[in-house]
Amino acid sequence: MLSTTANLDHFDRIDAEIQSVAKSIRILDSLTWPREEEARFLAGWQAGTPALPTVELSAPDQQSQIAALESIMARCDRAHPMGDHLYKTAWSYATAARMLEAIGTQAFTDHSVRLYGRPDHLYERQGLSAVAAARPILEVTESLMQSDAVLRTTPDIPAETFAERLREHLGAFFTKDDVAVVVDASMSAKAAAGSKRVKVQAGAMFSDLDLAQLLNHEAFIHAATSLSGKQQPHLRVLGLGSPRTTRTQEGLAVFSELITYSMDLVRLRRIALRAVAVDAALDGADFIDVFRIYLDGGQTESDAYNSAQRVFRGGDVHGRVAFTKDGVYLEGLLLVQTFLRKIIADERPQLIPVLFAGRLTLGDVLELEPLFDAGVLLPARYLPDWISGLRRLSAYLAYSLVSGRIRLEAVELPRFLELDEAAMV
Predict the structure, then answer these.
(1) CB–CB of 276/293 below 8 Å?
(2) CA geometry: angle at 172 spanning 166 and 175, to 5°?
(3) Residue 42: enclosing H or E segment and its boundaries?
(4) Which is nearest to 1 in space by CA: 417, 370, 381?
(5) How confident is the model at residue 4 (pLDDT cuts 50, 70, 90)?
(6) What pairs with residue 182 in β-bridges?
(7) Is 261 left (phi over 0), alpha (psi -120 to 50) or beta?
């Protein structure tokens, strides 16, 4: 048997301990830059005298959290899938705590890489890395961006109207939970989402595409998987979103944008540029170098600044010490799509809904499958429309197994004319 009442009680106690400790490990809150730094930097840039930002972040004392998590790890039975998951979750938060204690040092990046990887990591069987995948995306989309055939998206929806539309869609989807929408004048980002609240920047203008992206990325993936995890009778850490799940979560969310046609060229380029920027920072590029990467990639000065600061929050603006989280978006997309295609190739589509039953990694789906089969863990509380019933997604993935074998470098457009002639002969 996978579980008995006795060991479930033991795992539940450990689960509760992890949740308690995790609340005090606030990664993004600890790495946030002061808002006024943007105006100072851009003023220098526009005057022709750019200077590196002088942000100083205080490293929080996380020793008690690390000790508590190490104690938890020692009590986890890794031979049981539930115990192994709890061990990995505790390790994830302990690593995050060590990363925060090392703000500004090389150890910060070392721990960041353990949690989020690095964009130049080569998957040997595929001969591919995230940064290698990013470069052709940027090359192709740069030309497409200049084409009159590809129309730009125009933000023409006021924040209040946008918020009301969000409320309508969220109310129809989250039928068992209340997810509020708030218009917030203090926000620096245009929008942000949690499992219980979506915040929209007051005064900002939005587009229909912004609505589609926010719903399919933040709400129908991040918020939905968190709420599904929180309603689990056991392993309620599945609702936390531990750092080790970030690569899969962001990859699944970006895939959701693609499969629902919610992504435009600007968004795709932003994701590819993130991999290039993190790779450059790890290689020694400083803040101004990375700012130029985003600027040359087509972003506005304000967007380029905010994109660059994401790479250096907690790091060193001189380069080599960086926060590698932004590299997970493209790498996660590649991994998630490959995982889904392999599931279909191996005729195991029943695994796909498991991805939505909480904040999971791709490996967690495989390891925890017996617990879902046994009813110890519950199926997803919410599934986005594009996965409901699996018929449409399975058809798309099955076809992609064949289309993915076609080598475009061996194809030239005039060949299609030749095929017409050959048919007549």
Answers:
(1) yes
(2) 120
(3) helix 36-46
(4) 370
(5) low
(6) 199
(7) left
Residue entry with tokens 């506005």: 300
Tens digit of pLDDT for each residue in 25-81? Answer: 999 999 999 989 999 999 999 999 999 999 999 999 999 999 999 999 999 999 999
DSSP track, 313-355: TTS-TTSS---GGGGHHHHHHHHHHHHHHHHHHTT-GGGGGGG
Measure the N-to-C terminal CA separation of the chain; round to a whole number of Å. Answer: 67
Report residue 55 as tokens.
């942000």
CB atoms within 10 A of CB 387: 20
411: exposed, middle or buried (Cβ count in 10 Å: 0-12, 13-18, 19+): exposed
* Assigned token pair, 375: 């009813």
Beta bridge partners of 408: none
CB-neighbour burial class of residue 303 (10 A; exposed 0-12, middle 13-18, buried 19+): middle
* The one-letter amino acid at 169: H
Q: What share of the chain is helix, strand, coil (3-state, %, to 5)?
A: 60, 5, 35
CA 231 from centre of chain: 22
Comparing CA positions, the residue from 249, 238, 236, 245 lying closest to residue 358 is 238
Q: H helices within 130-264, ranges in order?
A: 130-145, 159-173, 208-213, 224-230, 246-259
The domains of the chain are located at: 5-48+57-154+207-403
Q: Which spans in 174-260 are helix H?
A: 208-213, 224-230, 246-259
- The label of the residue with tokens 């912004």 reads 210
Residue holding tokens 């250096």? 312
User: What is the identity of the amino acid at 106?
Assistant: Q
pLDDT at 237: 97
pLDDT in the model for residue 190 = 81
Structure tokens belonging to residue 271: 């994701």
What mean pLDDT do residues 400-415 have?
87
User: Residue 390 is encoded by which pair of tokens?
Assistant: 């699996």
How far from the centroid of its chain's Cα atoms is residue 245's Cα? 9
Is residue 135 within 8 Å of 276, Cβ to Cβ?
Answer: yes
Quick check: 260 and 216 in contact, CB under 8 A?
yes
Question: Strand pairing partners for 183?
Answer: 200
DSSP state of 297: T
Q: Please state, for a pLDDT cut of 70, what percent of the chain lies above it.
A: 98
Integer Cα distance of 281 and 310 in angstroms: 11
Which pair of tokens denotes residue 236?
A: 């309620």
Q: Is the pTM of this model over 0.90?
A: yes
| Per-residue pLDDT band at 379 (split at 50, 70, 90) | very high
